[in-house]
Amino acid sequence: MIITAEEVGTMQITASATVDGQEITRDIIIHVLLVPEFPEPQVTLRMRYKDQDTIKTDVKATWISTNESVVTIDPETGVFKAVDVGDATIVAISEDSEVVFICNVEVRYAWWQWLIRVFLFGFLWY
Hints:
Structural class: mainly beta
Radius of gyration: 21 Å
Helix content: under 10%
Strand order of the largest sheet: 3-9-8-5
Low-confidence stretches: none
CATH architecture of the domain at 43-124: Sandwich
Shape: flat
Oligomer: single chain
CATH class of the domain at 43-124: Mainly Beta
Largest sheet: 4 strands, mixed
CATH topology of the domain at 43-124: Immunoglobulin-like
Order of helices and strands: EEEEEEEEEH
Distance between the termini: 45 Å
């Protein structure tokens, strides 16, 4: 079943089924939110693998990483950490669904991390 929302809000769906002769009914609450279009990133941050940083804004915002396998971020505080090499985008969305900050993040190995990885076979545990 596909449900298409026509406006922002909350709806309740009641689903019923008969399983082994027993009627089962469940209520499902769906919250429909406005997802803003993301503008072009304002900056590009370059980080080393396993680095951690914080971005602060003037307004209360919810933080999102578009690639959690590369950059994880605390949605409340904006503290983010590079957990693998690669690229991600960090977005801050205000309580009224406005994008207040967006940036690209490039995560790369530092020269000494490459030495550990390549020459000392540290890729097995690093």
